Amino acid sequence: MSGAGLTWKRKLLEGEAVTVVAYGDSWTYGSVAEGWYEARENGMNADLIRGSWVSQLRRDLQHLNERATVHNSGKGGWTSAQGLDGFDTGVRSLKPDLLILNFCINDWRKPIPVGDYRANIERMLDEAEAAGCACLLWTSGPVSAVSGETYGWHKPLDDTAYPEPFVRYNDTLRSIAAERGLLLADAEEAIKAEWRSGTDISGWFYDSFHFTQDGHDRLFRSIRSTLGL
Known about the structure:
This protein has a single domain (3-226), classed as Rossmann fold. The longest helix is centred in the middle third of the chain and has 17 residues, at 114-130. It is globular. The strands form two sheets. The protein has a five-stranded parallel β-sheet with strand order 2-1-3-4-5, with helices on both faces. It contains eleven helices and seven strands. The chain is α/β, with parallel strands linked by helices and 229 residues long. It has helices at residues 3-13, 26-29, 36-40, 53-64, 80-85, 87-90, 105-109, 114-130, 166-180, 187-196, 213-226; strands at 18-24, 68-74, 98-102, 134-138, 183-185, 205-207, 210-211.
């Protein structure tokens, strides 16, 4: 773990003020966990989405350290390009000790070319690391798609005209994490492994690329475990 990574963990465990920012798209914002409908009716306030993995992590960290602050800077529909443009407001201004970063699903669907996607993620990581911030990447999904697995969901996304499969984007995150020596919470692979073991995950889908509460619970477990909590 890098020096920045050790610093945020030390602050957390020693009761010092520590700030975490979760930055990404709707998978970070909290679609479609418990409380999502209430948030839609109240100005899209992510803090009302009590079942999101971010809200679960906030409660967990504040149980360990009441001075821990966790900001949800997830924006539904955003790509990595929008994330890069909004980095100052969504991340830098909050002065995080730890950034938990994922953009993916909208880059795949737009589509943003994989090379541009990689460059955007790398730029955000460069900005965070220059500010002395530790970083964790995580993989979203799996998605129910015609070109691959449907996972039993009855309305898989027809992605046959997409230039790249979804996995190329998650593989990009895996590659970046390995090259930079960053923590990677591979939630997609963990959920796939659970499905391969016989778990029926068809009921976890709200649509072909958003999870309900069961999925958010798995995302939280993957991220929490990767953080060593």
